[in-house]
Design goal:
mainly alpha; 2 helices
């Protein structure tokens, strides 16, 4: 699904919207936070879109 160009999201919001749609169609009962988690995972794994800071905060600098 995530590699099909005709269905491929063009930005993070579209990717999240597709996750929400699939969740509703499959009646997963996922909360908004769970939909966000799946969208973030798919974004990291497949899409690499800029992610909203509230969902994808920058990692803390490494301690020396």
């Amino acid at each position: 699904v995530h590699n099909d160009n005709s269905r491929k999201a063009r930005n993070f919001e579209e990717a999240r919207g597709r996750v929400a749609d699939f969740s509703a169609q499959l009646k997963t009962g996922w909360s908004g936070a769970q939909v966000d988690d799946v969208a973030v995972y798919l974004n990291e794994r497949y899409y690499s879109f800029p992610c909203p800071a509230k969902l994808c905060p920058k990692p803390a600098p490494a301690k020396r």
